């Protein structure tokens, strides 16, 4: 009786597909891009304030050799606020972002007020609204009208933005089992380097208390890994001072300290060290 019932249901489904003028294929089982993204946001559910300690490793893009390793801390404050600090080789890098504004301070000096692509890895996690994340990914070139099924490290994934196995368009890979993000690929270009294929991989998901988060995040340029992050600890934390995310406050604080920083070392030496640090971490 059960077999007969299933046959009737399948026959009805085929009839409906024919009447709708659509072929009955495996594609019919692929969720729409916006629906996948909605389920991913529902799965992530980071607390309002999160603190983490992590190890950041840089690799030589030419041969893959490890260049340096440093410890850093990050803080999320939902929605769309982020603060990170890294110390390496006697230099410090502070990066803060609030919505569409950001600032970078290296060794006490403001070096930029726009994001570089590696800063974007956090954006998958800091949105609370579907519209906010969707708009951001659209600005990175993602087409939500396209979705497909693929496979990554033995796991079936939804691919938003392209038809698997193509990697020619901006796309986000989401686990079909858990709805956690696994890969995010897009392309960027400039007048110096031309077009480059950029990629984040969110792997080795781990439960930190009640929070699920990738314990390893990898950064690729043209399929060559240039950086990895190993998250050692992560926890819900009391909200930090709002000044940590206040771009105007940070700008005022560090511009006021410029003269003091310059008095410690000659200007040329400070510039050289900052450029060395930027080559490693940016």
Description:
It is a single chain. The protein is of the alpha+beta class. It has helices spanning 2-19, 33-44, 123-126, 130-139, 247-256, 258-264, 267-281, and strands at 49-59, 66-77, 81-88, 91-98, 101-106, 109-112, 147-152, 155-160, 171-175, 181-190, 194-208, 211-221, 224-236. It has seven helices and 13 strands. Strand 1 and strand 2 form a beta hairpin. The longest helix has 18 residues, at 2-19. Residues 1-28 and 257-265 have low confidence and may be disordered.
Q: Classify the secondary structure makeup into a structural class.
A: alpha+beta
State which percent range the strand residues make up.
Answer: 35-45%
Identify the strand order in the major beta sheet.
6-5-4-3-2-1-13-12-11-10-9-8-7
What kind of oligomer do you see? single chain
Q: Estimate the helix proportion, in percent.
A: 25-40%
Count the beta strands: 13
Contiguous low-pLDDT stretches (5 residues minimum) are 1-28, 257-265
What is the arithmetic mean of pLDDT?
85
State the shape.
globular
Please work out how many helical segments DSSP would assign: 7
Order of helices and strands: HHEEEEEEHHEEEEEEEHHH
For the sheet with most strands, the description reads: 13 strands, antiparallel
Our Rg estimate from Cα atoms comes to 22 Å
Spatial separation of the terminal alpha carbons = 64 Å
């Amino acid at each position: 009786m059960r077999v007969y019932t299933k046959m009737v249901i399948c026959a009805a489904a085929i009839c409906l597909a024919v009447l709708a003028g659509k072929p009955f294929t495996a594609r019919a089982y692929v969720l729409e891009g916006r629906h996948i993204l909605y389920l991913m946001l529902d799965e992530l559910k980071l607390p309002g304030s999160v603190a983490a300690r992590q190890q950041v490793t840089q690799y030589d893009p030419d041969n893959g050799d490890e260049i340096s390793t440093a410890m850093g801390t990050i803080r999320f404050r939902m929605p769309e606020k982020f603060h990170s600090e890294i110390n390496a080789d006697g230099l410090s890098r502070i990066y803060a972002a609030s919505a569409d504004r950001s600032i970078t301070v290296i060794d006490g000096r403001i070096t930029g007020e726009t994001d570089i692509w590696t800063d974007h890895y956090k954006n998958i996690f800091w949105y609370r609204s579907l519209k906010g994340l969707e708009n951001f990914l659209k600005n990175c070139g993602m087409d939500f009208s396209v979705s497909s099924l693929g496979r990554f490290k033995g796991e079936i994934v939804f691919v938003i933005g392209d038809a698997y196995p193509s990697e020619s368009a901006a796309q986000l890979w989401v686990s079909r089992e858990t709805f956690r993000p696994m890969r995010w690929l897009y392309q960027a270009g400039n007048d110096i380097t031309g077009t480059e294929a950029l990629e984040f991989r969110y792997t080795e998901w781990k439960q930190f208390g009640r929070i699920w988060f990738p314990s390893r995040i990898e950064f690729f340029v043209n399929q060559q890994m240039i950086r990895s992050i190993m998250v050692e600890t992560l926890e819900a934390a009391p909200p930090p001072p709002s000044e940590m995310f206040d771009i105007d406050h940070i700008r005022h604080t560090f511009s006021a300290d410029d003269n003091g920083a310059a008095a410690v070392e000659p200007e040329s030496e400070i510039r050289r060290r900052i450029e060395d640090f930027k080559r490693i971490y940016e």
